[in-house]
Design goal:
With about 425 residues, the protein is an alpha/beta fold. Helix content is about 25%, strand content about 30%. It has 2 domains: about 280 residues, 3-Layer(aba) Sandwich (Aminopeptidase); about 130 residues, Roll (Aminopeptidase i, Domain 2), CATH 2.30.250.10. It has 11 helices and 20 strands. A hairpin with a 4-residue loop joins strand 7 and strand 8. Helix 6 packs across helix 11.
Length: about 425
């Protein structure tokens, strides 16, 4: 098996094992532990050693991993990569039970800017975090992953909606409750969760108290295309970047200070204790720096690369792109630009990245949204404005962003990992190697 094929196989394993941010962070935690990284607790005093790697987790859904370099942090700064762990999905409401026409359904909220039509007629699993009272009276939490088709949102037949192919809007309140079983008797969803947790060897449950659960597509990721040119999967935005950043962090050699941060809640604005607008990253970096002057000097010598997927030019909808800025799948990572600071790229950070792409023999592309269309954003501008670090926004080009199943090129993730590994080893980000 070629190096790239092995990379994609492991990537797909990660994607399939990470139906929620909680599961993604757990998968990353295990990989970091296996690589010798040491777990930290924010409540404890830290004794960090040069040449060692560490990580910490907040809320089970955001993670910061870092390698302590051997040179003074205030003189060398950090090489940072940021991504996000969350993806648009359907989240189960706190009191979700609906009993209608002999069917038991669960009410859902739409998390983030989901493309809703593809959620119909899919085999849906259910995963997330459940909090419960144990038989010893303790408050506990557990991850749950019901990786089998337990729900479906059936479409209305064309015979009952003759205009469905011409104009079909989705009402999230009325159209998206998920059918999970047929029964004339009322059901209690928390009791059902307790039974399922017991099946998954959590046998000390007295009562399920609350939950954060999301439906997801049970179909596993796949290599797609006549020559397997593509990877199809749920949650490529942005678990693809999380995996790329992690692999680059672990592959990088040298003695520089390097950081990977993967935040939750980007898809809903990042304004939380564990989001990119929250204090998590800054508080970690300040503790590493040790004092205010060292912190300010370190930031001045640092750089952040925000890695989040880019819009590849769709062959059926090429008019949606600027004619000179239509990224192709499998044609290299994309530098994302926006003069209104929806992306944090500037000419210095993009030039450094272009040089890294040449050094690693990886092609590079540019994206600018059409001048008559609104531009999305990333954690890049949020991090840049919060801690004052120079920043670059890049990403792997994809199709069907925010759909239940997205598409990326089979070469791009592997190539971007090589570039980011080289970036992590730079002894300077001032514009000279």
């Amino acid at each position: 098996m070629s190096e790239m094929n092995l990379f994609n196989k492991n990537l797909r394993t990660f994607l399939d094992a990470s139906p929620t941010p909680f599961h993604a962070v757990e998968e990353m935690r295990v990989r970091l532990l296996n690589a010798g990284y040491i777990a930290l607790n924010e409540r404890d005093d830290w004794k960090l050693e040069a040449g060692k790697g560490y990580y910490l987790i907040r809320n089970g859904s955001s993670i910061v991993a870092f390698h302590c370099g051997k040179n003074p942090i205030q003189e060398r700064g950090w090489r940072m990569v940021g991504a996000h762990t969350d993806s648009p999905n359907l989240k189960v409401k706190p009191s979700p039970e609906l009993h209608r026409q002999g069917y038991f359904q669960l009410g859902v909220e739409v998390y983030g800017g989901a493309l809703l039509n593809p959620w119909f007629d899919r085999d849906l699993g259910l995963a997330g975090r459940v909090s419960y009272e144990s038989t010893q009276g303790q408050l506990c939490s557990a991850l749950i992953n019901i990786n089998r088709p337990v729900g479906v949102v059936p479409s209305l037949a064309i015979h009952l909606d003759r205009e469905a192919n011409n104009a079909h809007s989705v009402n999230p309140q009325k159209d998206l409750p998920v059918v999970i079983l047929q029964s004339e008797n009322s059901q209690d969803f928390r009791d059902m969760l307790a039974v399922e947790l017991a099946r998954q060897e959590h046998i000390d449950i007295a009562k399920v108290l609350d939950f954060e659960l999301s439906f997801y597509d049970c179909q596993p990721s796949a290599m797609v295309g006549w020559n397997e040119d593509f990877i199809a999967s749920a949650r490529l935005d942005n678990l693809l970047s999380c995996y790329i950043g992690l692999e680059a962090l672990l592959a990088a050699g040298g003695g520089e200070h390097r950081v990977l941060v993967c935040n939750d809640h980007e898809e809903v604005g990042s304004q939380s204790a564990v989001g990119a607008q929250g204090p998590m990253l800054e508080s970690v970096l300040r503790r590493i720096a040790g004092d205010e002057v060292s912190w300010q000097r370190a930031i001045a010598n640092s750089m952040m690369i925000s890695a989040d997927n880019a819009h590849g030019i769709h062959p059926n909808f090429s008019h949606k792109h600027d004619g000179n800025h239509g990224p192709l799948l499998n044609a290299g990572p994309v530098i994302k630009n926006n003069v209104n600071q929806r992306y944090a790229t500037n000419s210095e950070t993009s030039s450094l990245f272009r040089r890294l792409c040449v050094k690693t023999d990886v092609p590079v592309q540019s994206f600018v949204v059409r001048s008559d269309m609104a531009c999305g954003s990333t954690i890049g501008p949020l991090t840049a404005s919060a801690i004052g670090v120079k920043t670059l926004d890049i990403g792997v080009p994809t199709f069907a962003m925010h759909s239940i199943r997205e598409l990326a090129g089979s070469q791009d993730a592997f190539n971007l990992t090589k570039v980011l590994a080289a970036y992590f080893q730079l002894d300077s980000v001032s514009g000279t190697d």
